[in-house]
Amino acid sequence: MFLRYSFSLFNIWHLTIFALFFVYSTVETQSKFIKRDSFLDRTNVPKNILAASPLGGGSHLVPMLEILKILVVRGYNVTLAASGNFTANSESYRSIPQIIIGNETGTSLMNEEFAKKVFLEDVDFNIMSKVFDPELYTKFYNIYKRITEEINVDLFFCDVGMNEACFDLAWQLEKPVVGFASNPIYASIPPSYKSDPVFGCHVNMENETFYERFKCSIIKPLQFMNVFMTIGNLLNEQRVNVGVEPIWDPRSRMKNILFLFDTFFGFEIPIPMLPLHQEIGPVLADTYPDLTPDLESFLNAHPRTMYFALGTNVFTSPQNIAILLKSCLELINQNIIDGVIWATVKTNITELMSFSNVDFPISDILNNNYPHIHIIKFAPQFAILSHENTKLFLSQGGASSSHESIYTATPMLVLPIMGDQFGNAEKLELAGIALKLSRLNLTFDDTILKIKRLLSEESFKNNAKRLSFMAKLNSKRKYRAADLIEIVMNSAKYDSIEDENGNLKTNNNVLLKDWITADTRMGFIRGNYIDVYGTFIILVLTLIGGFGYALLKVVKYLYTYYKARNSNSKSNTE
Ligand SMILES: *[C@@H]1O[C@H](CO)[C@@H](O)[C@H](O)[C@H]1NC(C)=O
Ligand SMILES: *[C@@H]1O[C@H](CO)[C@@H](O)[C@H](O)[C@H]1NC(C)=O
Ligand SMILES: *[C@@H]1O[C@H](CO)[C@@H](O)[C@H](O)[C@H]1NC(C)=O
Ligand SMILES: *[C@@H]1O[C@H](CO)[C@@H](O)[C@H](O)[C@H]1NC(C)=O
Ligand SMILES: *[C@@H]1O[C@H](CO)[C@@H](O)[C@H](O)[C@H]1NC(C)=O
Ligand SMILES: *[C@@H]1O[C@H](CO)[C@@H](O)[C@H](O)[C@H]1NC(C)=O
Known about the structure:
The chain has 3 domains: 48-188 and 246-285 and 479-521, Glycogen Phosphorylase B (Rossmann fold), CATH 3.40.50.2000; 293-474, Glycogen Phosphorylase B (Rossmann fold, 3-Layer(aba) Sandwich); 526-562. Helix content is 48%, strand content 11%. The chain contains 19 helices and 15 strands. Strands 3-2-1-4-5-6-7 form a 7-stranded parallel beta sheet, sandwiched between helices. β1 (48-53), α2 and β2 form a beta-alpha-beta unit. The radius of gyration is 31 Å and the shape is globular. The mean pLDDT is 91. Keywords: Glycosyltransferase, Membrane, Transferase, Transmembrane, Transmembrane helix. The chain crosses the membrane at residues 6-27, 530-552. Belongs to the UDP-glycosyltransferase family.
């Protein structure tokens, strides 16, 4: 009875509230609206940006230039310092002035012989690190310094690859600096469950044995410690030359500054990230070169085409190319695929022509006399991947190729050759969009089997479509990247000090205080709460120990007591 009464009372109460809301909201709809003010006051915000990438090359420069183009539209003054004559020869980025700081690099930081060793042999991190040339530090430091004397640089935008000089100069001149990399591994120590094949481990250690996890989190880092130390020492010698204090923690120049990573969840191994570390990828251009009429008619005539390209920097052995071509022929014979487009780029065709170790007409193919295989030196990659008849991409797994393949929902067969490509291959495989080959153990049967799987199993296409959706939405984040750089510039407007020459000086340790987490200021022990948890553990152990001790005493006492009583009663009965 009472229950029913209160229930109806509740209903009346409810209705009253509802009616009140209704009246209120009608009243509100009758009032006028104002537009939210989104005007940004950019007056007196520092405007000169120097972007620097000693490695140069499309894969490093294109994502940076895409972000810089947005900043140019917003009124910033942008200059690029990079190797190779890039922007002048590019239709999309011609508007950005470039200072050429070296010959086209990418891989030409290595000489040809060394590149061959790295691409064709089994090299570990130790050998890879030989690419590192400490003299380049001083060279680039001085170049950047000269540039800053000509243009009054307000912010440095530094590509992470071999670019310590850029970060150091920014700290030295007390100017804000933003880092750029394709992989978070370059700027922070990843959690133990993330590693990388360049260290002989896997990108995701989740299901590895105890032995593997021990090896990859303890032994490998110790093993490569001396490599890092050697590089660090060599760098410090160069630093002294140009008047920079030696730095013992390589990441200290990357601390407390904004870092942008051209990657995205779905592709990247998920890890917790600092607020200062922002994923803004995949950064892609808005327009790409279209298909040539030749390619267009080839693609239209071949509804199951595989696109084969190893990117602009790397190549593989003629033996491997022969295996891949033979596999293509077999798959065409079996009618699994009906066309192949191969962008040869760095592959030495002359060498391949004279390669006699094969049982198929390789010169016919290389001369483009075989109707199902179309060979060109450079290809409009994005347009080919976007074509509905391109069903598969045989790639080296470079970051930008991977992003483009995901964006266009094209499953991949990955043949990683160097650097981050091994890790990318694993990530793509884990994402369920790819299978990978081994350049040192490439076989005809394995290649055939994997291509058949990629084309017949529905899951690859499904995952490709799922990831494509993510890539498309996340590709808007280049605007976010530009926003974040603007926020740094604007903070510098408020938090810089003018010196006697009218130069703005910024303290990079506190400029981005809104993003910097407290633990970085608290020191290792307090920051990780080791003092608090340590004390807690000691307390618990003491309590457990004390309790155990007391228990032991009681048990011992009872034992002797009963023993004494027993023997007493025994002697009584006797
Ligand atoms: C931008 O660059 C141009 C040319 O270098 C220069 O004349 C101009 O003053 C710069 N603008 C700002 C705001 O520094
Ligand atoms: C860079 O390329 C442009 C356009 O091809 C050319 O005009 C210019 O001379 C080149 N600069 C250098 C330093 O080679
Ligand atoms: C670039 O290469 C040319 C010839 O290959 C060489 O003469 C020149 O010194 C190089 N320039 C730089 C900046 O390394
Ligand atoms: C590890 O195994 C679990 C359970 O089988 C699976 O869900 C997960 O995807 C695996 N992770 C990796 C990196 O293979
Ligand atoms: C290609 O290989 C041939 C024969 O091995 C060699 O003579 C030529 O220099 C190579 N070309 C390039 C660009 O490496
Ligand atoms: C080479 O690959 C085959 C399978 O394709 C595998 O059975 C073999 O163990 C591999 N060899 C090496 C040395 O990795």
